[in-house]
């Protein structure tokens, strides 16, 4: 069920891959598939975030909760949807609103956030799979240890990484960030339930200030039209 871990990240997971937790996760996913459940994103996209942003390029980590559970939307990058999705999730629409108010981005005609990933934004979910139509259905099945490992790897990185944590679940990983060269920016989640507190956070301009103060290139947050 699980595809290979992308090459630039594999070196950090050799011990985990042979451990009981990873084997239990694989067994769980295989049983879900054997039971006829649709697992999202598709197998080839499960490690999409790691594929899109190699370890060497990461300078920002944006953490989501779990993939979109509507078939045809999730493709491995948190908050992003496939380019042909006609109606954007409300969380993504709220992100675009804050982008417009914070850094002046125009609202694009699509919800594919791959341009961010190509600039060094690792767009990670805390849990990398979900059962179709069942949010949080793969929570507590072993993914958290995998994403904790990614946090540990980036915490050990000598250059600055800006950790952008949205919502209570994301903030639970803040204790994993201990090295002083890194910056944590946390705020409310952009979902409709908490968007009132998300609006006005100016988190995107904060990220760019944290990058430029150590002479790293700021993120161009504008998503181009397709």
Oligomer class: single chain
Largest sheet: 4 strands, parallel
What gross morphology would you assign?
A: globular
Low-pLDDT residue spans: none
Average pLDDT value? 97
- Give helix and strand order, one letter per element, not per position: HHHEHEHHEEHEHEHH
Helical percent range?
25-40%
In percent terms, what proportion of residues is strand? 5-15%
**Structural class by SSE content:** alpha/beta
How are the strands of the largest sheet arranged?
Answer: 3-2-5-6
Q: What Rg do the Cα atoms give?
A: 17 Å
Q: Termini, distance in Å?
A: 32 Å
What's the count of strands? 6
DSSP helical segment count: 10
Question: In short, what is this structure?
Answer:
This protein has 226 residues and is α/β, with parallel strands linked by helices. It has 10 helices and 6 strands, in the order H-H-H-E-H-E-H-H-E-E-H-E-H-E-H-H.
Molecular structure report:
There is one protein chain. With 226 residues, this protein is an alpha/beta fold. It has helices spanning 7-10, 14-17, 20-34, 48-52, 90-103, 114-117, 143-155, 167-171, 195-198, 203-212, and strands spanning 39-40, 60-64, 121-125, 130-131, 162-166, 183-187. The strands form 2 sheets. It has a 4-stranded parallel β-sheet with strand order 3-2-5-6. Strands 1-4 form a two-stranded antiparallel sheet. Strand 5, helix 8 (167-171) and strand 6 (183-187) form a beta-alpha-beta unit.
